Amino acid sequence: MFVSPSLKKNQSFINCIREKPIFLLVSLAIIFFSSCSDQKSPKKLRIGFSQCQSGDAWRKKMMDEMNRELSFHNNIQFIFKDAEANTQKQIQQINELVKQGIDLLIVSPNEAQPLTPVIENVYTSGIPVVLIDRGINSTKYTAFVGASNFEVGQNAGRYTISLLKGKGDILEVMGLSDATPFIDRHKGFVDVIANNPGIRLLKTIQDHAVNYESDLENTLVTNQNISLIFAQTDYIALTVYRICKKTSTDKKIKIIGVDGLPIDSLGMGMVASKMLAATVLYPTGGQEAIVTALKILDHQPYSKENTLATTIIDSSNVRIMQLQNDKVTEQQADIDKRQKKIEEQIIISKNQTNIILGISITLALALIFGGVLFYYLQENKKINKKLEQQKEEISGQRNQLVELMQKVKDANDARVNFFTNISHELRTPLTLIMAPLEDAMASPKLHFAVKNNLEFIRRNTMRLLRLINQLMDFRKMEEGKMKFSASENNITSFVNDITSAFTETAKKKHISFNVTSKVKDLQLWFDTTMLDKVLFNLLSNAFKFTADHGNINVTIDTTADGKTAIIKVADDGVGMSEEDAAHAFEMFYQGHSSTFKGTGLGLSLSKQLIGLHHGDITLTSEKGKGTCFEINLPIGKSHLQAQDILKEKPAPSNIYEDEKIYITDIEKVNLQHDSTTAVQKENSILIIEDNDDLRAFLKERLDSHYELHEAATGESGASLAFDIVPDLIISDIVLPGQNGLQLTEILKHDLRTSHIPVILLTAKGSIEEQIEGIKSQADAFIVKPFNVAYLEETIKTVLKNRAVLREHYTSELPAETRSNSSSKIDRKFINEFTAVVENNIANEHFSVDEIGRQIGISRVQLYRKVKALLGYNVNDYILTIRLQKAKYLLLNEELNIAEIAFKVGFASQAYFSTVFKSKFGVTPKAFKEGKTSHPK
Ligand code: FRU
């Protein structure tokens, strides 16, 4: 469909408004205010008025007329300048007006001559010029408004003739000689009386002349026949009358004035009081000048010459004239009043318009805001509806989640219940195993090997029982079914009873084990079964993580206020890392370091059991320094509920029956060797394993074929390895203190032990652990639980590989030099010696002294030992090893002869070739190329 661009524009505008209501608001506001600003009044026209003077009544009347007319025209800005009868000032003011910027100039020039060029300039610059009352000596003006002064003079002349009946001497007093009215009045007057020879104009006196008044006085005195004086203005007429009066000629001399001013002291008033014979009406033309100016500005037709009517006012018409004038004045006053009223109305109307405008704006804005508000309300409704939908969806999802969680919980409960039931089920057969086992072990005729095996079975059965008990306690705790039954007991003897069960273990491990009570016979309310479990757990941990010859201290004390009992179990064993210590009481937390590993049940359970006592258990531990557990229990029973208190005290003998398993787990089993089965053992193995049972088990299985050494910690294992230099090491990765990986790394970096193959035992078999193992240069990994046959095969393979390697280097040695010595020291020496030589084979400066220093024996001892054990001179031996290595490299590596010579410690290729040929009868090059059969 075709859509016109304007339609598209409109559509996008509508869309914009729909999407952004604020846009609508702003748009409407702009339209509204711009329409308001359109109502602003148009630019005002400027009319400048240059008045020659303004102080006299005639010019005031002119000004009144102008103002009255201007009041009907609001669009005029009227700028008035008074030259105060000063021609230069008027010139300056006209220029100022032009500069100011005027649209039209009204001017009443003070003097014609000097002002003519100025006014001509204004006119030619394009500004219309309206002359009023007085003219210039040029026609370069737009319009003239005023009466004809020539006619004024003629009127006065005619009246003179008629008054004097054509006979008599007369005088004329003239105004400013360079102002056109006075020149023209004179001309008109003379024009009339010249035709009447009976009338004699004796003199024309200038009223601006310095001695004007005295001149007039003298003239009157000296010319007694003077019967009339023509005064060119009413003001001049007043002065003339005064002088006549002075000279007492006022009775016989008639005076004619000009202007006809409607005031008592002048013009009409003087005629009415017979001071003047007549006055010629000279209209001011103020109103007409403004009307003409507006026509010009409005580009309406106008006349260039606007001559106003003039007439004689004498005693015959002065009354009517005065009355008419009064009437006009009255009407004008009325007009002024009405005009004022109109102006007031205009102001009121303007104010009302403003109020209406304000109300309209408010209304419009209210409408706009209302619209916007409505829009947002609608939008809000939509959003709320959406939110409501979302809420419903979320609540649906939540319900689903709750359902799902319930299902998960049910499934979990089912699993845990199953687990608990299985644990229960396991307990019975385990107990059934224990009973006949104990019986069988009690038999005095038992062969020691059988007894050992039975002991082994018993200990592991107990371990299983302990784990199952803990699991069941944990379940009870979780379900809130753990029954708390406190009774009052002597805590010191209670602790003593428990600790006494560990004294045997302490003795065997050479651990200094002390129990101290700082308070005597402290009575405490506690659940004996629970506290027993907690203390057994803490003590078995302490014994587990404390090395032989360590210290374990148990102390009983109270706080200073005597309100709390404190039981501390402190050891100087392996300690925990900060992280392990922080999480030790968390359920299932097994620790990150090898030093702290457990099921994650014991301590968590202990914490909960102590919690049931309203007590607390805390620990402080430092890695390598030891651990201290502190139990706080409230003294007294005020904190206990009635149902927490046991009615009857349990019989002491029943208390620990189950928990004996804690101790037996720690005790060492002394497996005895059957000396009759001893055979000649070629290789020695060092077993490093902290689990006594596993260590004993391995020892038993490997004992028949290998000379065995054992260690329970990484540190003791390392020192034993340096000491005995075994042929192979089997080590657990998880060891108290230094772990298996760290141990391997140390051994592999020590010359004395670097050649010993290491097999690591790991419980996890994780790829990360294996990578760590490879980094530490372990030779093999066995994942627990392992098959013994597999372990034995691995041991054989690793040892065979080592032998093959050694064979490779020593195959050239005469048979008698091969060590078949079973002496540990000798084997250690040979191992060390060959290792030093092999490690330095590329060093051409490698010397006998260096070997001695590295092995830690003197030069002479070294010579003797090597000769005795290998039948070789040390240097010959080193050379043989070098050449053997060279052969191996020639066959197996992509290296040139020079590089091989360098690798086996020869400084020059030539010397290497010579020695090689003398030894094998063939040059290295020929040997490499296989041109001859390989030397053996
Ligand atoms: C007033 C006046 C009048 C006279 C006119 C001539 O200033 O002197 O008396 O008629 O000016 O311009």
Outline the structure in words.
With 936 residues, the protein is an alpha/beta fold. It folds into six domains: 5-38; 45-144, 3-Layer(aba) Sandwich (Rossmann fold), CATH 3.40.50; 148-283 and 309-319, Response regulator (Rossmann fold); 488-659, Histidine kinase-like ATPase, C-terminal domain (Heat Shock Protein 90, 2-Layer Sandwich), CATH 3.30.565; 684-810, Rossmann fold (3-Layer(aba) Sandwich); 820-929, Orthogonal Bundle (Arc Repressor Mutant, subunit A). Helix content is 54%, strand content 15%. It has a six-stranded parallel sheet, sandwiched between helices. A six-stranded mixed sheet has the order 7-6-8-9-10-12, sandwiched between helices. It has a five-stranded mixed sheet with strand order 14-16-17-19-18. Strand 1 (45-51), helix 3 and strand 2 (76-82) form a beta-alpha-beta unit. Helix 14 (491-500) crosses helix 16. The longest helix is centred in the middle third of the chain and has 125 residues, at 318-442. The relative contact order is 0.04. The model is unreliable at 1-10, 651-679 and 814-823 (pLDDT under 50). Beta-D-fructofuranose (FRU) binds at residues 53, 56, 58-59, 133-134, 175, 179, 181, 233, 235, 258-259, 282.
